[in-house]
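note to self: dont lose this again. the chain is below, predicted strucutre after it. 223 aa total, dont forget to put it in the shared folder this time
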Amino acid sequence: MRQVRNLVSLLLAAVSLAGCTYDRGEGPPGVHFAEFRVAPPDKNSVEVCHAYTCAEKTTFYFRTKDIKEIAAVMSKTKKGDTPFQERRAIAYAIALIEKKVGAKLGIKDRAGMEFGGTGDPTQQDCVDEATNTTSYLMILQSHGLLKYHTVVVPMTKGDLLKATLQGDPVKYWPHWTAVIQEKKTGQRFAVDSWIYPQGENPAVVEVEKWYIKDINNLPKATN
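---
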C-alpha cells in the first residue's frame, strides 16, 4: 500500500509538469525546497531525500572533518583556476558526498529510475537526486568552495503526455536536475547524479544540452 501511495504521489507530481519544460529561471533554490516540503540546508545539516520524490527525509550532518576532506578532493581535482576546472571539482565533490551520505544513512542507490524502487529507502529518483545535489552544492557554497558558480533553483524537462501515449518514459518522462550558474557569463549547468550509481561523478553540462533523449544518449559523467 505504501508503494502505491508513493507511486501516486510521483504521478501527481509528474502531471503538474506535463509541459515540455518547467524552468523556474535563475533564482535561488528556496522555491524547490518549499514545493517538495524539504528543509533547506541549515549550517552543516541537510535533509536528505530518498524513497522516491522525497517520500522519506533523513538529516545528515557534515562534520568539520567531512568539509576538509571535500575541500581537499576539490583542490586536488583542479588543474587550473578556471570555471571549467571548478565544475570538474564539483563533480568529484558530489560523488564523495554521496558516498559519505550513503554509508551513514544506508542508501545504496542504483542508476536511473525503477518503478519498483518507489518507497524503498535505499533508492532515489531524480527528484531526490536533484534536491539532494542542490543541498550539497549549497553546503559547498556556504563554505566558500565555489568561486566561479552560484547554486540556483533546480529545473526539469519532459512531456508526460508523450511519455504516456508513446510508452517511452525514458525519452519523455519529466526529469529533474540540480543547477549551478557561472557568475561571469550567466551560463547555467545541470549537475545530474541520477544517471549513474551512487558515488559516481555526476554529469555537469550546459542546461541547453541536458536532456534525456533515450537510454543510449545520456550525458557523460564529468571526470
